[in-house]
Design brief:
2 copies of one chain form a homodimer. By secondary structure, the first copy, chain A, is an alpha/beta fold. The longest helix of chain A is centred in the middle third of the chain and has 17 residues. The model of chain A has no long low-confidence stretch (mean pLDDT 93). Chain A folds into 3 domains: 62 residues, Up-down Bundle (Transferase, Pyrimidine Nucleoside Phosphorylase, Chain A, domain 3), CATH 1.20.970.10; 223 residues, Nucleoside phosphorylase/phosphoribosyltransferase catalytic domain (Pyrimidine Nucleoside Phosphorylase, Chain A, domain 2); 86 residues, Alpha-Beta Complex (Aldehyde Oxidoreductase, domain 3). Chain A is built from 16 helices and 13 strands. In chain A, the strands form 4 sheets. Chain A has a 4-stranded mixed beta sheet with strand order 1-4-5-13, sandwiched between helices. A 4-stranded antiparallel beta sheet of chain A has the order 6-9-11-7. At the A-B interface, helix 1 and helix 3 of A face helix 1 and helix 3 of B.
């Protein structure tokens, strides 16, 4: 078969700051999926894209080509009680430390009759994976057939499960390549990777939680904003109502970073309690998802307080084989870190906590690693809290105590304590992009 | 074995415009040669180097690491008649159309007692290869053992042969990768590729003929100058006396572009005749090579006129199995292109002629192609010549007449004829960098 284009010409075009035509982009994504473009050619092109950028039109076409590389889901068979087509809404977070928001959020939004098909991933590196967290619940299964997923969306309204291999296979291949070639951090490639999967998932509306700060993928607010704007534009191009919140990730979300301990905290939120920041972000994202689905008069905060969200949560966990009332795994060993002085906590570095939780066994360094359900970091004082010397700041949890040492190294400069009277200035939701 | 560095860290450093440490560079070249750095990682790094550049110190270390990847030749056993160590000198051209200079130059320099170990390559694309040209001489062999090469350098003084696989193997692997990943045109990589081979060849002094113009690898004078300066600096760093001439390649050198027809023209030059530009460049490069070897009072022009260079040529060809007096192969078919109007030739595009010769069968598109000894382009009028309408401008030569059509297409706009009185402004030697 004669190929339409030549890979070297395409690499040269982007290398020399040119624009790829729609046909060139379609061919590139397809030829890479077919193995006609070799890995070493794609990685050179990725580096050229990272350094020279892509226009909005190029990114949009690239995203469409990645969607076209696989199957697309279709939720139009879901019905409301009155027989209409059920609205669907989905959330994506770019990943942060202690980010368990999907857990309370999916059942909360489902309370209001919106279907929430939350296809999620496992963690790699210092940010946790939603599936890893849920897998600490005895019996819970991440892998569902398409039929089981549709049935659960119809009956329960919310599902959090693993994405099938059929969605955007080009992205799967490309992401693995970017991971080993230093080309992960290219905004056009990040945006098209996220959005191709989310659009292929067939949701009607989408809310993006773009994290910025030390514990985020994007440390820099300008880059995070550019990523958010790019993704919102891609959603619009594909006809998916998309809104992004830019949120702070200099400090971990909530008081836990791990797996089972994050489920525990999520259940607290679903029971109407839990840390203020987790509740605030859950409610804000729920409002956006509901608005995207056309529901503007809902009161998600009330649905957390009155147990409606908890009801959906329990049904959602049970539908996937989990026992929502079972005791969660507990780490075998713990070690406490104490405050060295009196004062106010003004900083609690998200990256340090994330790396510590990871080193304690909550995350994985390689795809094939197994995570410890009970491992992680419990925080006892968040920014703004008054502490006295000798009071506990954090508890480190692991099944394998030889891990404490390196976890403590990561936390050495994590907490900043200032004299009384100092006030940390941290807003959680930094901006909204629509 | 634990590796000293991580490939992704190194890619990221260069991607983010950082500087690689000497240890990182040594490891990178070595790990790539060992296969620890994968092709897709090296191509991403190459693209980052192409777009973000390298410092002089980085290029110098990279070159040294490539040299260290293989064996180094040593000519210190060569002796002058009086028993001293023979001086060695080598020339490298970045490649042009009709560039047969190595053929008369090597024996010419050897006339003055300097050893000329000219390790050469085969052609790929529109610029011819020195070995391809010489292989049109019946019986001549490019492949010599190290012992045969040393013996010939001692006895004859000049050798033009294929480089062994043991010299800079990292460069060999890297060049093949750059060729398919759009990363050939990176000055740090070009300079280190050329200089690593030349320094590994062990010459005492080196003259670089850096071509600039349509038929050259570098179309742009600024880039060509940067390449020349970089290579001269690399030579200096390695203790090899290095000079570069920047020479014009908008017009082919001489009146022939092909294989046997270029040998024929070289023999004319060695017989004291031949085209002015070929003689001028041969003599200029000979002076530089001789000066590099410490000989400042030689008269190379005289050695062309009086037959001394021809004597060395004949001995050099015969030493490698060739018959210097044998008839050269002649193409089976020819076709003439005529002047469309009266006037002065003011332009004769090197790239067009090179592509035409290549399409006629003088060059190869893939490494495994076989070249036609007799194929090529004979030019009858160079810039500055007066022509009358209907006079022959060029003769196209090939064994396979179906090739004429595409060769003529390449030549469609190759010749520019202006009204009488116009004068082409073309200097051959543009600058000297030392």
């Amino acid at each position: 078969m004669t190929e339409l284009f030549d890979a070297v010409d395409i690499i040269r075009t982007k290398r020399d700051k040119g624009t790829l035509s729609p046909e060139q982009i379609d061919w590139t994504v397809d030829a890479y999926t077919r193995g006609v473009i070799a890995d070493e050619q794609m990685s050179a092109l990725n580096m050229a894209i990272l350094l020279n950028g892509m226009s909005r039109a190029e990114i949009s076409r690239w995203t469409a080509a990645m969607i076209a590389s696989g199957e697309r889901m279709n939720f139009s068979s879901l019905r409301t009680p009155s027989g209409g087509v059920k609205a669907t809404s989905d959330k994506h977070s770019t990943g942060g430390v202690g980010d368990k928001i999907t857990l309370p959020l999916a059942p909360l939004v489902a309370v209001f009759g919106v279907a929430v098909p939350q296809l999620s991933g496992r963690g790699l590196g210092h940010t946790g994976g939603t599936l890893d967290k849920l897998e600490s619940i005895p019996g819970w299964r991440a892998d569902l057939s398409n039929e089981a997923m549709m049935a659960q969306l119809q009956d329960v309204g919310a599902v959090i499960c693993a994405a099938g291999a059929g969605l955007a296979p080009a992205d799967k291949k490309l992401y693995a390549l970017r991971d080993v070639t230093g080309t992960v951090e290219a905004i056009p490639l990040i945006a098209s990777s996220i959005m191709s999967k989310k659009i292929a998932e067939g949701t009607g509306s989408l809310v993006l939680d773009v994290k910025v700060g030390s514990g985020a993928f994007m440390k820099d607010a300008t880059m995070a904003r550019e990523l958010a704007e790019t993704m919102v534009a891609l959603g619009k191009d594909a006809g998916v109502h998309t809104v992004a919140l830019l949120t702070n990730m200099d400090t971990p979300l909530g008081l836990t970073a791990g797996n089972a301990i994050e489920v525990e905290e999520s259940v607290e939120v679903l029971a109407g309690g839990g840390p203020e920041d987790v509740v605030e972000l859950t409610v804000a994202l729920a409002r956006e998802m509901l608005a995207g689905a056309g529901i503007h008069d809902a009161d998600p905060a009330a649905a957390l307080k009155d147990g409606r969200a908890m009801d959906v949560w329990k049904r959602m966990i049970a539908a996937q084989g989990g026992d929502p009332d079972a005791a969660l795994p507990v780490a075998k060993e713990s070690e406490v870190i104490y405050a060295p002085a009196d004062g106010v906590v003004v900083g609690l570095d998200a990256l340090s906590v994330g790396v510590a939780a990871w080193r304690l066994g909550a995350g994985r360094a390689r795809k094939e690693d197994v995570v410890q359900a009970g491992a992680g970091v419990r925080m006892h004082a968040k920014p703004g809290a008054m502490v006295r010397a000798g009071e506990p700041l954090m508890t480190l949890l692991t099944d394998t105590p030889e891990r404490f040492e390196r976890a403590k190294e990561a936390l050495e400069h994590a907490v900043i304590i200032a004299p009384e009277g100092a006030r940390p200035a941290q807003e959680l939701i930094l901006d909204r992009i629509s």
